[in-house]
């Protein structure tokens, strides 16, 4: 049976519209977490019916953004996984890989407790938490990171600091490509400042 004329372009247009809506949502929700779906439709350049055809409500839209964020985070965590390197370099690599994802989806921070729920956020962050805790444990064993705190606690503290810095990006108080945050993370883990800066510079240059 032949394919109906126009079926493929329609599907392509649907995918394009969905991607445009999600991209607009990432941008506009960061500016105004209370923006309505009607306002989002106008900002995305689609009619209200098109937006609701993809996302029948706010919960569906946020769920799609959360799924995107989870997939992007898992992909970023996979970068460098299984590679043997010193813990300070591994943590720098991890932070530089994760920062663009956090920066792209930082608007979810403003929506986490109210709309997504902390259980959903915890599920999204779980792969990153497992990975960074393993790096911290390695660094403590090797004497690269301080041992004032158990690895899971230090890992949680580094995560909280990163989240706080992403919130500062949301407010416009901070602009960073991830390098300053990576240096700060290494310092917080116990790496001397000069060594932290050198490690991040080397990792950033290698990634670049």
Which tags fit this structure?
DNA-binding transcription factor activity, mainly alpha, DNA-binding, 77% helix, 208 residues, transcription cis-regulatory region binding, Homeodomain-like_sf, HTH-type_TetR-like_transc_reg, single chain, Tetracycline Repressor, domain 2
Provide the fold topology:
Elements: H1 7-31, H2 37-44, H3 48-54, H4 58-78, H5 87-104, H6 107-116, H7 118-141, H8 151-171, H9 179-189, H10 193-207
Helix pairs in contact: 1-2, 2-3, 4-5, 4-7, 5-7, 5-9, 5-10, 7-8, 8-9, 9-10
Task: Supply the CATH class of the largest domain.
Answer: Mainly Alpha
Question: What's the domain count?
Answer: 2
Q: Strand tally, please?
A: 0
How large is the share of residues in beta strands?
Answer: under 5%
Uncertain segments: 5-9
CATH topology of the largest domain: Tetracycline Repressor, domain 2
- Helix-residue proportion: over 70%
Name the overall outline.
elongated
For the sheet with most strands, the description reads: none
Number of alpha- plus pi-helical segments: 10
Average pLDDT reading: 87
**If classified by CATH, what would the architecture of the largest domain be?**
Orthogonal Bundle
The ordered string of helix (H) and strand (E) elements is HHHHHHHHHH
Structural class: mainly alpha
End-to-end Cα distance: 50 Å
Instruction: Report the CATH superfamily of the largest domain.
Output: Tetracycline Repressor, domain 2
